[in-house]
Amino acid sequence: MNTRPRAALELDDIQRGVLSPRPTPYAATYILFRIDDRTHGRELMRRVRAVVTSAADTTSPLGDAWVSVALTFRGLKALGVPPHALETFAWEFRQGMAARAAALGDVGDSSPERWEAPLGTPDVHVVLTALAPDHARLQAAIDRARPAYQCLPGVSAIWRQDCHALPTETEPFGYRDGISHPAVEGSGITGSNPLETPLKAGEFVLGYPDELGGIQTPQPEILGRNGTYAAFRKLHQRVAVFRRYLKDNATGPEDEELLAAKIMGRWRSGAPLALSPTRDDPRLGADPHRNNAFLYEHHDPAGFTTPGGCHIRRGNPRDAAVAGEPRLHRMIRRGTAYGPPLPEGMLEDDGADRGLMFAFIGAHLGRQFEFVQSQWMNDGVFFGAGNARDPVIGSGDGPDEFTIPRRPLRRRLRALPRFVVTRGGEYCFMPGLNALSWLGDLHD
């Protein structure tokens, strides 16, 4: 760490996938690679350098399509990054996500022993992500990237996951997704909450001051600066189980939707309970200028409108008084659905694999992603709810319960099953564009 003052964000050296909000709708693909020959791995870095779009390039030949590349710790080792440089990376990144399973709550059905191969294994070295507004432009982006890894026998594509975002912007449980996006100082990108002060760039990009005034940068500086960390997770969603639980615990269809809203903190349309507490408001939910413009502390400190234990309030307590400073745990979060939707009204599982490819972007794996996952999602102490877990994505063994504050008597949902199962994941480093060139020019 050092504390030298830095210049404005160097957007032309930051991968576009770090800061740019995703288009709506969109399609995406994740492709994993193993490096068996470091010479070919370095050639891959040189080639992808010509394909990856920077955050400054908003007029890409493919429009709102772009390609991003990230490396695991083992990937950096496979390229021959010197040990003294490897030791300067975050220790969580050096361990890898599978090794952090206990801290993340990835136990039982979510344990790494049950992950989808090759996720969480030493074979995963490079993660290439392509994203575009539709499948045709996604294929064009992949075609543009394909020469980067073809004809390199020392580099093997070992896994692929195709994803999509529907025009309705909903995820498999039926909620509008991708609503909240933080404002990052110096990025030129407006956050989705006009009441939120922009966060320091160093919370999300390495090499810049963060909220505490420190600067985190793996060394040498050309390798670390303008990079960031990413956590990718494949999350299988038990949609039929979720639907049955709501139906079995509601008094009727209207109550079922209210329970769904109280569990999430939003109606399925995206309208927040904070702004529409008693009924859904689809027009509000679809309005990007209004559907995230709220805080908690002044109007709802006790959580009678938006329960303290609901999913969105756990993930981002905003200005609420909780154990932990919310601004130090803010994340850029991206979620992309995979698999076919379960037909509307179906309450039995059809056997299809469906869920969300989750991506965290941030400069602090420990106090951002891991803190939120372990302290806010898988515990309730931070807002006075004991060991209660997040009702949507909380992980661990055994059933849980969820309390809805109300007068005169609170409402308690008991025996919540696990609705989401981790199918795999990786901790990655997304280098700046100059760092990609540096990795390509490595010599033994």
Q: What does this protein structure show overall?
A:
The chain is 24% helix and 18% strand. It has 444 residues and is an alpha+beta fold. It has a four-stranded antiparallel β-sheet with strand order 2-3-1-4. A four-stranded antiparallel β-sheet has the order 6-7-5-10. Helix 2 (38-49) packs across helix 7 and helix 2 (38-49) runs antiparallel to helix 14. The model is unreliable at 1-6 (pLDDT under 50).
What's this entry about, in short?
It comes from Actinoallomurus vinaceus. This protein has 444 residues and is an alpha+beta fold.
Give me the secondary-structure topology.
Layout: H1 16-19, E1 26-35, H2 38-49, E2 66-71, H3 73-78, H4 83-86, H5 91-95, H6 101-104, E3 126-132, H7 135-149, E4 155-165, H8 221-224, E5 228-237, H9 239-249, H10 253-264, H11 282-285, H12 311-315, E6 332-338, E7 355-362, H13 365-377, E8 400-404, E9 411-416, E10 420-430, H14 433-440
Antiparallel strand pairs: 1-3, 1-4, 2-3, 5-7, 5-10, 6-7, 8-9
Q: Report the sheet-strand fraction.
A: 15-25%
Strand order of the largest sheet: 2-3-1-4
Order of helices and strands: HEHEHHHHEHEHEHHHHEEHEEEH
Helix/strand structural class: alpha+beta
Query: Mean pLDDT score, rounded?
Result: 93
Main β sheet profile: 4 strands, antiparallel
> What's the helix count?
14
Overall radius of gyration: 21 Å
- In whole angstroms, the N-to-C terminal distance is 27 Å
**Secondary structure tally: strands:** 10
The helical percent reads 10-25%
Q: Which parts are unreliable, with pLDDT below 50 for 5 consecutive residues or more?
A: 1-6
The shape is globular
InterPro entries: Dimeric_a/b-barrel (IPR011008), DyP_N (IPR049509), Dyp_peroxidase (IPR006314)
Domain DyP dimeric alpha+beta barrel: 14-144
Protein name: Peroxidase
Pfam families: DyP_N (PF21105)
